[in-house]
Design brief:
Blueprint lengths: L1 H29 L2 H15 L21 E9 L15 E4 L2 E2 L2 E3 L8 E8 L8 H15 L5 E7 L3 E8 L2 H9 L10 H15 L5 E7 L12 H10 L2 E6 L10 H17 L3 E2 L7 H13 L2 E6 L9 E7 L7 E4 L2 E3 L4
Parallel strand pairs: 5-6, 5-8, 8-9, 9-10
Antiparallel strand pairs: 1-11, 1-13, 2-3, 2-12, 4-11, 6-7, 12-14
Helix pairs in contact: 3-4, 3-8, 5-6, 6-7
Length: 341
């Protein structure tokens, strides 16, 4: 009996051991899944930024500072038309839209370098006078260009054409001018003025006086894109002083088309602070060029920071005077285009 009971007990113990062994095997079988979870957790941990790796902060908003410095070339002559050279900045008074501005000198009179665009009319209307005009212009270049100055030369024909790229080399400019020939073209006058103005703006340097001198009758017969108002706007936007020399002589007053062309050039010159010349005889051209050169060499350059803080791109009218010497003749541009945000 004892043996029977002992056998049953052994059987139970064996069964218990088998059950325990199956449980252990089942547990071991589940263990391989743990490293995969551990790897996923490790991967997530690696993706988290380390304490020393700071998350980039959003960039601060860029603040643009627009300079409202306005530079104004001013020509001053006496009652005889001779340049006046002994004025100081405090002698001038400048108003912008009726508000007096505080002025600052921007250089000695006539010393600020010049960027010059010289425009030759090569069309049929000036063909019989062209050789003399070209020779006078070459003399002008020799007289006006100083170290630091630069010049570009354009031909006014059927389409605008640049004959000499902007250069500081006077001999290169003179050689280029000498090579220009007249043609039987029509006249794209305003298209050429606009192109030359934009060319100076695209290729010039800051802080220069920009000047345009045209030798033409101003009669436009072929401009496809631009008219008088467009030409004036481009001159004003790019701070260019405009001078014109009309070699046609006083006989243009007998022709309405010729008068219209000349009046257009007067408008361009008046509103930018320049001059228009209509010499009685062709032989007066050298004298006219010398007068322009003398004026530019005595020209004042004054500046101010506009009291207006509105950058709306609109045209602002200015007026310059010398209150203590009202007999002097003052010429300066009539205004400028404000910066635009």
């Amino acid at each position: 009996m004892w043996r029977i009971m002992s056998g049953i007990s052994c059987l139970r113990q064996t069964k218990f051991k088998l059950i325990l062994l199956l449980a252990v095997l089942t547990l071991i079988a589940s263990i391989p899944s743990l490293p995969a979870e551990g790897q996923e957790q490790t991967k997530q941990a690696q993706q988290k930024p380390k304490p020393q790796d700071k998350v980039p902060e959003p960039e601060a908003e860029t603040i643009r500072i627009l300079s409202n410095l306005v530079a104004v070339p001013v020509s001053v002559t006496d009652t005889n038309g001779q340049p006046v050279r002994n004025l100081k900045v405090e002698d001038f008074r400048l108003e912008e839209e009726g508000v007096v501005q505080k002025l600052e000198p921007l250089g000695e009179p006539g010393k600020t370098p010049i960027e010059l665009a010289l425009l030759f009319d090569v069309s049929q209307s000036v063909r019989n006078r062209f050789d003399f005009e070209r020779e006078a212009a070459i003399r002008f270049l020799r007289e006006i260009l100083k170290p630091g100055d630069s010049v570009a030369i354009f031909s006014i024909g059927t389409i605008p054409k640049i004959s000499v790229e902007l250069t500081k080399n006077a001999e290169t400019a003179i050689k280029g001018a000498a090579s220009i020939e007249p043609s039987a073209d029509s006249t794209a006058f305003f298209d050429t003025v606009v192109r030359a103005a934009r060319y100076l703006d695209d290729n010039g340097l800051p802080g220069m006086r920009r000047v345009m001198v045209t030798i033409s009758d101003g009669e436009d017969t072929n401009s496809e894109r631009f008219r008088l108002g467009d030409a004036l706007r481009e001159l004003q936007r790019n701070d260019i002083i405009y001078y014109s020399i009309n070699p046609s002589g006083p006989s243009i007053r007998l022709n309405k088309i010729s008068m219209k062309g000349h009046e257009g050039m007067i408008r361009l010159a008046t509103d930018t602070g320049g001059l228009t010349f209509l010499p009685d005889e062709l032989k007066e051209l050298p004298k006219v060029f010398s007068q322009i050169a003398a004026e530019l060499q005595a020209q004042y350059l004054i500046g101010y920071y506009s009291t207006s803080e509105v950058n709306d791109g609109k045209f602002r009218r200015i007026e310059v005077g010398v209150p203590k010497q009202p007999n002097l003749r003052i010429r300066a541009r009539k205004g400028y285009f404000a910066p635009k945000e």
